[in-house]
Amino acid sequence: MSRHRVDSQGPDDEVMPYSDDETDDELEASSEEEPEEEPTGAPLPPVEAKPSEMGWKVKANDRPYHQLPEFQKKVFLCIKKSRYSENSIKTYKYNVLTFLPLNLYEQFKRVANLYFLALLILQIIPDITTLPWYTTLIPLVVVLGVTAIKDLVDDLARHRMDKEINNRKCDVLLDGGFKELKWRNINVGDVVRLKKNDFIPADILLLSSSNPNSLTYVETAELDGETNLKFRLGLRATDERMQEVRQLAEFNALIECEEPNNRLDKFVGTMLWEQQRYPLDLDNMLLRGCTIRNTEVCHGLVIFAGADTKIMRNSGKTRFKRTKIDELMNYMVYTIFVMLILVAAGLAIGHSFWYEEIGLKAWYLYDGKDQSAAYRGFLSFWGYIIVLNTMVPISLYVSVEVIRLGQSKFINWDLQMYYAEKDTPAKARTTTLNEQLGQIEYIFSDKTGTLTQNIMQFKKCTIAGRGYGDPTTAEGVVLDRGRPVDWSWNQQADKKFQFMDHALVARVRSGKDKDANEFFKLLSLCHTVMVEHKEGELVYQAASPDEGALVTAARNFGYVFLSRTQDTITIREMEHESTYEMLALLDFNSDRKRMSIILKFPDGRIRLYCKGADTVIYERLSPNSRHKETTQTDLDVFANATLRTLCLSYKDISTGEYEAWSRKHKEAQVAMSDRDAALDRVYEQIECNLMLIGASAIEDKLQDGVPETIATLAKADIKIWVLTGDKKETAENIGYACSLLTDDMQIHYGEDINEKLSIRQANRRNQPQTIRRGKKKSAEPFFPAPGKNALVITGGWLNEILYEKKKKRRRLRLRRLGKRAPPANPGDGQPMDDWEKEMRQIDFVDMACECEAVICCRVTPKQKGNVVGLVKKYKKAVTLSIGDGANDVNMIKTADIGVGISGQEGMQAVMSSDYAFAQFRYLQRLLLVHGRWSYIRMCKFLRYFFFKNFAFTLVHFWYSFFNGYSAQVTYEDWFITLYNLAYSSLPVLLVGLLDQDVNDKMSLKFPKLYLPGQQGALFNYKNFFISLFHGIFISLIIFFIPYGAFLQTMGQDGEAPSDYQSLAVVTASSLVFIVNLQISLDTSYWTFVNCFAVLGSIAIYFGIMFDIHSAGIHVIFPAPFTFTGAASNALRQPYLWLTIILTVGISLLPVICIQFLYKSIWPSVGDKIQRSRKRYEMEMEEEERKKPPPFERGRRSRRSAYAFSHSRGYADLISSGRSIRRRPTARGGPQDSIREVPQREAENI
Predict the structure, then answer these.
(1) Where does the P-type ATPase C-terminal domain start and stop, copy by copy (predicted)?
(2) Quick one: three-class SS letters along 141-190?
């Protein structure tokens, strides 16, 4: 496994790159740092420098201000409206007035519906019509009606969801007091009051809260799927003077800030209030989609509402999704149109010649119309268009919709995809994409909340060289299976915390193991966790769930963190409380990968506690430190089990040493330039010669069944890419934990990828232009060496590789200079033109697709969507995206199928998804069972549907050779009307709904069964033409065998049954038998319902036919019912029954023989499994009895991930004292308004 990293001038792996969404001011700042080459020659014209202006203005408590003409934008012609969005959201498509016209417009955009409408118009014209108008009108009305009802039901569900959100209540300040308004009535500039557990209705500037310094905790699960709390702070100026309703009502500040955008990690603005300007940043903002936690009341000013909010801006463009089969089906319908026109034209020409040669000369055919042969041929053409219209089956689309609806219901009803713990069933939120689930080639998954539960558990530790965490008795006897520790001896313990090693608990309680006690004392003291006492319980608020897990572990082992002030920490050590003076808090950052705290003990000793990544702690250990090797061995074991490790150490400091260091620390704190670097240098001086205590191991708990699901999907040849906003090392570690990455893989990072792509690009530039432009892609692989490869690439490198950042910077710089873009120099790393940029993207996609695994980390929501779009565009592959937060919405909408994880705290992803369920492991059942079945059923349905309609329609073609090409129909009119609606629809519908080649367990056991769907092997043009030729063959037999039987025949009663009506009855009866028995041969899974449908369809045909041919109905309606007595007359002749039997037998015998040969000589994977079904079922029962072995990776390799995943903590907040409640008397004159809380990293946006 390659883990070699080279230093390069590439992008920072820790930074979240918002290349396409960067505001111009920040790009200007970054581009100014780059030296610009001044062109020689004539001097540049002077460029007028324009002051940077904030484009968005919000006036507090002043609704009319936002309706001023300067804030109006043109909507249509002279109609204008305010540029500030309303707070209501609209996801529905129709209202009462627009439903009928809009729905009909959408339905008639389907070529088939438009074709049948034109056909209906033709049938009204007397000279052309060969069939009554109702034969087309009835099926068309049924199709349009069923589709309209389905669309209406879907849209009503969207109306309900929008109404539920828009009608949520919120307190808004109006007319000097708070009034309860619905969300949809909130406007920009309103002051709102939010209470604990309220959803935040808009993007709001925090003014004040009930906590000290306007400290407000928010849960961002809707945005990023994380449940650990983040804190936000109001400005000190507003916090001190915005506590009373009267003060809030008098608030009249003007906010100038950035335009609405999709950047979740950035906000820039200023507040102008009473001739003072106050800077605003993201720490002051409460974003829509978050929830207020642990804060009784807070007040805020609405800055962005509705569609302008960041969460809505991140939702991406809603795309109309269609399946590959839909597209193929449309092309096939176009093919049928062409065939229809050609056949009708040929028969029309035949009619012209026939009329010239025979029609004109036969006196008995004279119809009294003096029309030329050409004109009669023209009329015949339109007549045949009407007669042969059933080649394009009108009921095809409505049948497809019914099947999809049924398949969606089966997904909703699947109890094996129901998550009982949170009462969350699977939900198919669309009914149009089911068969596409059986064709997925690429899955793009989020990490946090999708693969992981975002729950950290303290699993194991090593203290003084001894490992703990396996099931062990109090005496130290190792067990195969133990029971969790009973924490009843500790009143402050978290009852949910589970630990299996009783020996460690016994050692800590005995007080004899000083190292063990020091280990947990460090965990209880060295952190930035905030504590809240709620109803006698301790509630910890941590910057990351990892820290919360460690402090909770110390709490259960008897070292309970109780409270903290600006300069003290109080803990309970077993039975007595101790307060430690905090002299310095050296917080974590991504470069240091460690944090330290310097404490003064009650007895006057000064000690430094430090915890961090093993790589940085080991570099700073004292030569006298013990247990390095044994701890290292335990770290390898923990890393091998994919646990997140963290080394703990301490150092005793003399008073003189601390005072000398403290002076340097204070100097660094007030440094005017490069303060962070100065502080890091001072920290280095004290964090040395450490003594190792041990190491902790935390499990970033995966969702149940994630490794098994990924392994199963990989066997189905589905590639899984992880796209996450998390840090690289954390994402990589999860990749190992879920078996996406393995030790035998060669991992390639951003700089390596960039180098390979640059070499390929340089080679292409060196080729002659004619060859270069002709070759779309290189045949050479990027990784010619044998073995598995994986890509781990950050968002910064992704921009670098795809030229995103360079493109924007270059464009901006040229705009500032007032110039056009010159042609790029091949040596400057810029794309020479759009073709080269496209080739670079193709190269990247090709390289990624050569790999077994791809992990993209530190990527923005827009980048997630772009990566999915690249694979769709250049691989023409069917893609699926799965996520649980608002940051996943873009890729969910971009992919062919979007899946949302429901049951978590966030529901934004679910609202934008096509399918939703509670656990990642259900994905394999959705694809390998429901998806595969849906695909097989739909393909079988379509093949059969085209066949039965060709067989039905082409009988007219053969009949035309015997009726002078006069467009006369073979069948009775009512048979043509009811054939697709009643006589042949039910059996094929049931096959489309219920058929299965193997059961669900076999589908999961043999993932290779999924491959035909990816290859599109079951429905393509080859299958279409097979159905066509099968239909031609059957139509020949259906017409010519009865024709031959009727030729010069005498019945038993001496009457000749060779009349037209008897022929129509025999051909129709033969057709109904053949198509219903043919679907019986194609049915793999028989139920009572299938059997009933086949027999019932035949019975319905005879029942309706005898009724229509009865004398009674002819007396009531003489014009439409003209086949009086035809059925009873024809079917009482045994000779004709023999003809029907012979026709059916000759039609089905070749099909039976071909199916037998295929299953015997060329069996499919499904056929082979079906043969050995009993043996496989017995094997599966045996496997279920066996206990699966615990997950282990094959080779030990150390990966410390905790310190990399850790986000910056609350150190600045703690050391500033702003989290400590101040006395009322402290609230006096105005204080500094500019906070010194630095911008924290956006963890896992």
Answers:
(1) 910-1164
(2) HHHHHHHHHHHHHHHHHHHHHHHHHHCCEEEEEECCEEEEEEHHHCCCCC
